[in-house]
Amino acid sequence: DAMVIQNPRYQVTQFGKPVTLSCSQTLNHNVMYWYQQKSSQAPKLLFHYYDKDFNNEADTPDNFQSRRPNTSFCFLDIRSPGLGDAAMYLCATSTRQGAETQYFGPGTRLLVL
Amino acid sequence: AQTVTQSQPEMSVQEAETVTLSCTYDTSESDYYLFWYKQPPSRQMILVIRQEAYKQQNATENRFSVNFQKAAKSFSLKISDSQLGDAAMYFCAYNSNAGGTSYGKLTFGQGTILTVHP
């Protein structure tokens, strides 16, 4: 089945130690999104790619970066994780920009010690 | 900027009964879509139903239907014949199709936790 896959499902890192989260998709969608979701809150968009065009949200901290080497893969890099970065990170895809349905992966839960 | 408000932090329903989750939104745009997403305890966000603003007919997906009142900017979700598997956090979301800085970005409400009692 076509899907959005996130690895790992759980990630533990140390304060200040860089970490990379991975997202892949078999839907061949043009747009990929990264959201941060803290406990009992709504997801918050960090950035998205439309093909290779990177779009950063104005309030996304510089500590967060992303790479999209090809259509299928997208990575979220947290350069120096702080305790406040502990959250669920959700990857989503859509066929194109605009009000298209976004399809979500299962998420990666990040714990910062 | 668009805002989405879910005024019910928690709701509960008996199995086989009907429950309605409320959502209101604020926008000056005319071209947009509205969504209800379900997030079970396993945390994967799943699309429940989608409504295009230019369509007057309310969307329906099996036991799930919406009451879309465009003038009132209201978008409620009705779940009929509730099942134990419906228990989850439900998010109402808005997506702009009108270009500009909000184009293609989901704006979520705060969520409603639905509990289903056997």
How would you portray this structure in words?
The complex is a heterodimer of chains A (113) and B (118). Chain A contains no helices and eleven strands. Chain A is mainly β. In chain A, strands 2, 4, 5, 6, 9, 10 and 11 form a seven-stranded mixed sheet that branches. A four-stranded antiparallel sheet of chain A has the order 1-3-8-7, with no helix packed on it. Helices cover 0% and strands 52% of the residues of chain B. Chain B contains no helices and twelve strands. The radius of gyration of chain B is 14 Å and the shape is globular. The interface between A and B is medium-sized, with 24 and 25 residues.
Percent of residues in beta strands of chain A: over 45%
What is the strand tally of chain A? 11
Radius of gyration of chain A: 13 Å
Q: Can you give the helix content of chain A as a percent range?
A: under 10%
Strand content of chain B: over 45%
- pLDDT averaged residue by residue of chain A: 93
SSE order of chain A = EEEEEEEEEEE
Low-confidence stretches of chain A: none
Largest sheet of chain B: 6 strands, mixed
Return residue spans of chain B where pLDDT drops below 50 for at least 5 consecutive residues: none
Tell me the greatest interface.
A-B, 24 and 25 residues
How many DSSP H or I helices of chain A? Answer: 0
Assign an overall shape of chain A. globular
Determine the mean pLDDT of chain B.
93
Provide keyphrases for this structure.
heterodimer, A: 113 residues, mainly beta, 7-stranded mixed β-sheet, 4-stranded antiparallel β-sheet, 51% strand, globular, B: 118 residues, 6-stranded mixed β-sheet
Quick structural summary:
Chain A is an all-beta fold and 113 residues long. Helices cover 0% and strands 51% of the residues of chain A.
Helix-strand blueprint:
The complex is a heterodimer of chains A (113) and B (118).
Chain A: E1 4-7, E2 10-13, E3 19-25, E4 31-37, E5 44-50, E6 53-56, E7 64-67, E8 73-78, E9 87-94, E10 103-104, E11 108-112
Parallel strand pairs in A: 2-11
Antiparallel strand pairs in A: 1-3, 3-8, 4-5, 4-9, 5-6, 7-8, 9-10, 9-11
Chain B: E1 3-5, E2 10-14, E3 19-21, E4 24-26, E5 32-39, E6 46-52, E7 60-61, E8 64-69, E9 74-79, E10 88-96, E11 106-108, E12 112-117
Parallel strand pairs in B: 2-12
Antiparallel strand pairs in B: 1-4, 3-9, 5-6, 5-10, 7-8, 8-9, 10-11, 10-12
